[in-house]
Specification:
Strand content: 25-35%
CATH architecture: 2-Layer Sandwich
CATH class: Alpha Beta
Oligomer: single chain
Number of helices: 3
Number of strands: 6
């Protein structure tokens, strides 16, 4: 299963200074030991974020998971990282695309279960 993660640039931030967020998230996800994590890009060109719809993207990661069960762990790690860094992330997995922002633990559980249910239904 392939997962793409796009890190959102916040208003007023310099995209050149934000590549550390992509590196930090990559390290966090790689540390979980669930799947292979590769950096797709840190930024499109110096100082110019990629536009993905209304989302200004400063970094993107590609994660290959061997088992769908690993997706739950990946999403937990992603939410933990997002809480610490106050970042928003767009995720694309199994035909599901969504923008994730801060969420309570209960909301996180509902989102994770909804993603897993949707992917299972499409399989």
């Amino acid at each position: 299963m392939d997962v793409k993660l796009f890190i959102e640039q916040q208003p007023g931030e310099e995209s050149g200074d934000l590549s550390e967020f992509a590196d930090d998230l990559k390290s966090e996800l790689a540390h979980s030991g669930k799947g292979d994590v590769d950096l797709l890009f840190e930024e499109a060109e110096p100082g110019a974020p990629v536009s993905r719809g209304a989302l200004a993207v400063v970094g993107a990661l590609f994660v290959r998971l061997e088992e769908i069960g690993w997706l739950r762990d990946l999403l937990h790690s992603l939410f933990n990282w997002m809480t610490r860094t106050d970042r928003a992330v767009e995720i694309s997995v199994g035909g599901v695309e969504m923008k994730l922002t801060r969420a309570t633990p209960e909301q996180q559980q509902r989102i994770i279960q909804a993603v897993l249910d949707r992917i299972a239904a499409d399989s």
